[in-house]
Amino acid sequence: MKQAYESSRLFLLLAAAAFSPSCSQPGKADNKREIHTPSAGFIADTKQGRQLFVEYCSQCHGRNGKGTKQGPPLIHKIYRSDHHSDMSFYKAAQLGTYQHHWHFGNMPPVKNINPEQTGHIIAYIRQTQHEAGIE
Ligand code: HEC
Questions:
Q1: Ligand 1 pocket check for 88: Cβ under 6 Å
Q2: What sign has the CA pseudo-torsion 32, 35, 39, 42?
């Protein structure tokens, strides 16, 4: 029952996100939903990304991106950039994602995070993947 409730709630959130006004620097997702990305000239900072990751993502993805009981590791070969592009990270943060690779349930959209913050987080994750020999 809980699962069904969460799925319908996620659907409503996805619908709301799909119909929200567009921003000035949209990136195009394959399904035509606009995914917001940082504006031109943005420079990602891995140090800020690490702090933001702890704040916004570690609850489920673990303090060092190694996963928890609530979410998968992102320092994992299926999340390297040839399998999950940076756009899939912007998309996951803004719209959430349905359970499809694992059995942790859905990822809800991350509240109050902007594309720049997500950009810093992606840089941190790519660096950490690289250090782990994943990329
Ligand atoms: C409430 C828990 C939760 C939080 C918070 C969370 N995630 Fe997730 N995330 C998940 C789960 C669960 C999945 C796995 C879905 C699946 O594939 O089964 C996932 C999957 C993903 C994916 C893969 C998406 C895809 O296309 O397969 C990315 C990228 C991701 N998360 C990034 C992030 C980032 C970045 C943050 C922080 C800004 C974050 N997540 C915060 C639970 C969470």
A1: yes
A2: negative
